[in-house]
Amino acid sequence: MALDKTIHSAFARATGPENVIDDPVRCRAYECDGLTGYRVVPDLVLLPRDAAAVAAAVRVCAEHGVAFVARGAGTGLSGGALPVADGVVISLSRLRRILEIDPVNRRAVIEPGVTNLEITAAAAPHGLYYAPDPSSQQVCTIGGNVAENSGGAHCLKYGFTTNHVLATEVVLPDGSIVTFGGDSPEQAGPDLRGVFVGSEGTLGITTKITVRLLPTPETVRTLLADFPSIGAAGDVVSDIVAAGIVPAAVEMMDTLAIEAAEQAVHAGYTVGVAAALVVELDGPVEECEVQFDQVKRICDRHGCTRLHIAGSAEERAAIWRGRKAAFAAVGRISPDYFVQDGVVPRTRLGEVLDRIAAMGKAAGLRVANVFHAGDGNLHPLVLYNAAAGETERAERLSAQIAELCVELGGSLSGEHGIGTDKACSMPKMFSRDDLAVMQRVRDAFDPDGLCNPGKVLPTPRLCGERPGPYRPHPLEEAGVIERL
Amino acid sequence: MTTAPAGRGAFDAHRPPERDLLDDCVHCGFCLPTCPTYQLWGEEMDSPRGRIYLMNLAEKGEIGLQGPFHEHIDRCLGCMACVTACPSGVQYDRLLESVRPQLERNVERSRGDRLFRNAIFALFPYKRRLRAAALPGALYQRLRGVPAVRRLAARLPGRLGALESLLPPVNVREAFATLPAHTPAVGERRARVALLSGCVQDVFFHRVNEATVRVLAAEGCDVLVPRDQVCCGALELHAGREDPALGRARRTIETFERLDVDHLVTNVAGCGSSMKEYAHLLADDPEWVERARVFSARVRDVHEVLADLLDDGGPRAPRHPFRGRVAYHDACHLGHAQRVRTQPRAVLRSIPELELVELPEAELCCGSAGIYNLVAPEAAAQLGERKAANVRSVGPTVVVTANPGCLLQIGRHLGTDLPLLHPMQLLDASIRGTAVPVR
């Protein structure tokens, strides 16, 4: 049952009629985010232009009991911005002003629709940058980064989004506007800013963010090293850390991922090699030079077959382009794929990769691996062909891989979030009590359950049947219920 | 109601968008930041990802062509910045090329829109008609100095107003001048080329063609300019008017294929892009497919030819230094569609002391986009303003770009204080040691 006309006009008054999309065809463009397997058509899409309009729209939701889902650039990979049927999508794409760059205090104030890379571009003239760098940084928005507590290759040294957000203005589910955190890094009282960052859009909508900026490192050295086995590359990572070096980034890619990335950007990766490591060091020149030599020796010791050192900013950018385009580039070697995101203790990387390979073989599916090796954050990509009916099998394998990470003492998600995709796996990682506490926190912010419902925490409906194209409910298959 | 036997979903049977090409899109969104309409409006349906999503739905028959689908495809500038940005290798150019003719065939436009578009296509591809229009144009430009006429012009409705203000300074002598059919190479011959003189280019930017011929000759090329050449069909092709575009493609092939030359050269980004596409466009036509393939393989942008000559033996003609900052704007159909980015820069750098500067948001279209600034003047004006601001931000002494559409559009928004040229004009001035022109 769709929303009635009076509610439509209330939204039109809240945001201005030119900022409302109600045509069903246009709304379909919003039916999924970066995870296309889940699709729900929203009843309305709102594109407010400022925080006041966001608050006004949320007040209409509260008043009429309408569920709402915030959306940034729609690049999320866990279905966190999946719309709710008969609900509204609140797109923040028109809140995209950079309000302030404060080079003295090294911070920036921006609206949620500004992209991650735009912050760095605006800060660069002052010799500053914004450190967290998700691979999609050229398109993903800071609002989405805050919601997902996004990471990125350089989070190994610099920390995740939450370590760089000083304050955030939030529209709460009742439509009031509050600010969590403040200009100084440490605030008295409970850390509500910390609760909000990474809450995946379930506690409110951020409308203004103050982030920390860092000075651009004096020097950056980047190398690309090939290895005859994943194990050898893994040992290099362990040895680098054991040597007391804190690299800015250590990334690993396997054969399939290398092949895809090289096809996409021709960045000089060696096609056919078993594993490649991208190691980047940054900081003062002398320190970098000494440590870079150490890293090279470690690589040699573990049978590195080719060591390519970026000789210019362009070469360095090319190496990163290859790495950052890897997910999307896999589209070149497989018609469909799932991007998985799990974490294992770094020491168990070799073990988890062997088991993933065995699971892939058993399922008859290829798995490509791209990962932040330095912090044990894996991104196995399960390749499949939907047209050949492999979807369900791939989905199952993908979920099994995430749960394997938990089994090995890791986490269901490193940086992509739980969203729709992994809500049903949460009980594998958390006890009933853990989940109940999370639910109580959520209820304190959103007592009516209108704010991005169905995400993060498992619900019986969600975990029994999935939104999207029709498929029989398990109970329907068992002959217990029938669809009318 | 039934659809044609081999039609797919809402599309008819003649070249619907290919399923494989649609499936290439993984919905990652990397195209959003470089899409001009997404930059303007922030709406998913006006992004490449959203448009492909809608194409997908139409191909599955879940939505029709009329209405929202048509509108959002119409709003695409066809700049192909998304093709450059896409890590998955989605061929949006091919998708758009098949969808636009589908819309032209199957969707009824409003009467006003139809008449306006018909008028555009009855004028621009015809050199003679453009020349005829240039006469009252020149007269009008003198009259524009009269306050009453200016006031009247300011009241023209949107699209006509755009047409009026884009009107380049018309020089009657130039509009009617023709290039020599044969210009011999200066000194020993290094190559033999044939030049497409273009329609708008030859009437409104004849000086660019003259400069191009002089530069090519000075660099050791014999330059042929066939007199019987017609419009290459680029404007119609990019607007989805497939049949007339293919007719012009065949005539252009006929005219040029019999010439004994190394390269078919163009100095217009849009024309080069479409001529390189002929092989694909005529792929279904057994009589023409091979001829089109041979033709397309010989097409080069003038900068490609000159950059090759620079690599192969360096500059022939001595250059006079140019002391100034030159901002090079990548025309979309040169940078994104033909992937020609390094060559124009290399050619400009062959001018001593010239300082080349890059523009912020270089990948973003200026809003010209074929006939876009005529049919969607408001969006085009916003993009033009943005481009002009980006150009001013780098403080150039001269701005250069290799497409007449961009020259008109940027010129309109940049004002007249900055010289705005085709790179060939700057190079020509450097070789001849003459003053750098303003337009």
Automatic annotation (TrEMBL), chain A:
Query: Membrane among the record's keywords?
Result: no
| Basic and acidic residues biased stretches | 473-484
- Which ranges carry the FAD-binding PCMH-type domain? 38-216
List cofactor names only: FAD
The segment annotated Disordered runs over: 462-484
A Pfam family the protein falls into: FAD_binding_4
Which is one GO molecular function term here? Answer: oxidoreductase activity
Keywords of this entry: FAD, Flavoprotein, Oxidoreductase
Q: What InterPro entries does the record tag this protein with?
A: FAD-bd_oxidored_4_C (IPR004113), FAD-bd_PCMH (IPR016166), FAD-bd_PCMH-like_sf (IPR036318), FAD-bd_PCMH_sub2 (IPR016169), FAD-linked_Oxase-like_C (IPR016164), FAD-linked_OxidoTrans_Type4 (IPR051914), Oxid_FAD_bind_N (IPR006094), Vanillyl_alc_oxidase_C-sub2 (IPR016171)
Q: Which SUPFAM superfamilies match?
A: FAD-binding/transporter-associated domain-like, FAD-linked oxidases, C-terminal domain
Protein name per its UniProtKB record: FAD-binding protein
Which species does this protein come from?
Pseudonocardia asaccharolytica DSM 44247 = NBRC 16224
Q: Taxonomy-wise, where does this protein's organism fall, top ranks first?
A: Bacteria, Bacillati, Actinomycetota, Actinomycetes, Pseudonocardiales
From TrEMBL, chain B:
One Pfam family matching this protein: CCG
List, in alphabetical order, the Gene Ontology terms for molecular function in this entry. 4 iron, 4 sulfur cluster binding; glycolate dehydrogenase activity; metal ion binding
InterPro entries recorded for this chain?
4Fe4S_Fe-S-bd, 4Fe4S_Fe_S_CS, Cys_rich_dom, Glc_ox_4Fe-4S, Helical_ferredxn
In short, the EC number is 1.1.99.14
The record's free-text note on cofactor binding: Binds 2 [4Fe-4S] clusters.
Q: Which domain of life is it from?
A: Bacteria
Q: Does the keyword section mention Lipid metabolism?
A: no
Which purpose does this protein serve, as stated in its record?
A: Component of a complex that catalyzes the oxidation of glycolate to glyoxylate.
Alphabetical list of PANTHER family matching this protein: GLYCOLATE OXIDASE IRON-SULFUR SUBUNIT
State the name under which the record lists this protein.
Answer: Glycolate oxidase iron-sulfur subunit
Q: Which organism is it from?
A: Pseudonocardia asaccharolytica DSM 44247 = NBRC 16224
> What is this organism's lineage?
Bacteria, Bacillati, Actinomycetota, Actinomycetes, Pseudonocardiales
What's the name of its gene? glcF
